[in-house]
Design goal:
By secondary structure, this protein is an alpha+beta fold. The protein has helices at about 5-30, 35-50, 115-135, 145-155, and strands at about 70, 75, 90-100, 100-110, 160, 165-170, 175-180, 195-200, 205, 210-215, 220, 230, 235-240, 240-245. The strands form four sheets. Strands 7-6-8-13-14 form a five-stranded antiparallel sheet. The two termini are about 30 Å apart. The chain binds magnesium ion. Magnesium ion (MG) binds near residues 105, 168, 199 and 201.
Length: about 250
């Protein structure tokens, strides 16, 4: 079901979104070689508690962390563990917050210390693709326009565009309809309307687009072991265009 949000609903989501942006800031600052993923996850929990928000990830279908922390070949849904970051890793941080019942959800990927040029390029292009998807979002645009814009950014680089995991609607639930694919055909698919809120989240792999899930039943990795990057923002569709809700 797709629900229409009122301006006051977007205001609550914006407040949740600012907390998510703060988690990104705190975790990114702390993510240095030698730091464990569990330590970073605890910092995110502290930010949420300070802001009197709750985590939409913790206990989601039994997920054991406040955030998803995915390193290198891990695409999404990495479980915060005792694993220590090391120089050259790339870390995807996916985090969310619930304020007064309303959700926000956003992800960033960044390097730990000095990283390989190909990793830096993958991160840069994936972020650029997220913004291309956001720019394609407006009342009257169709879902295919977003997916097409995203995949066109990957194409010249030959990156694998993940197909099994997608963006989504968001509001009183973290995952609402519609599903937002990271590929598509222009002018096809559902039409976007003011009052919708969606998460746009491309995941690009350095190699194949194919994925598999590890034995922990959560961590999604690239099938070929190549590295992967992920960016996400929560977007409100307004009568005038869009607003990114997950900004500081
Ligand atoms: Mg999401």
């Amino acid at each position: 079901m797709i629900t229409t949000k009122r301006p006051e609903d977007f205001a609550r989501m914006r407040r949740a979104g600012a907390v998510v942006a703060r988690i990104h800031e705190v975790v990114r600052e702390a993510a240095k070689p030698g730091v464990t993923l569990l330590a970073l996850d605890a910092m995110a929990a502290d930010v949420l508690a300070d802001a009197r928000c709750t985590s939409n990830f913790l206990n989601y279908r039994g997920f054991p962390g406040t955030t998803c922390l995915s390193v290198d070949r891990e695409i999404v849904h990495g479980i915060p563990s005792k694993r220590r970051l090391k120089e050259g890793d790339i870390l995807s941080l996916d985090a969310g917050a619930i304020y007064d019942g309303w959700h926000a959800d956003a992800a960033i990927t960044f390097g730990i210390g000095e990283i390989q040029p190909e990793a830096a390029r993958l991160i840069e292009v994936t972020e650029k693709a997220m913004w291309a998807g956001i720019e394609a979002t407006r009342p009257g645009a169709r879902l295919g326009d977003i997916g097409y814009a995203i995949s066109q950014v990957a194409a010249p680089h030959g990156y694998g565009v993940v197909r099994e995991y997608t963006g989504h609607g968001i509001g009183l639930q973290m995952h609402e309809d519609p599903q937002i694919l990271n590929y598509g055909t222009p002018r096809k698919g559902m039409k976007l309307k003011a009052g919708m809120a969606i998460c746009i989240e491309p995941m690009f792999n350095l190699g194949t687009h194919e994925t598999k899930v590890l034995d922990d039943d959560w961590t999604v990795v690239t099938a070929d072991g190549a590295i992967s990057a992920h960016f996400e923002h929560t977007i409100a569709i307004t009568p005038d265009g869009t607003e990114v809700l997950t900004l500081p």
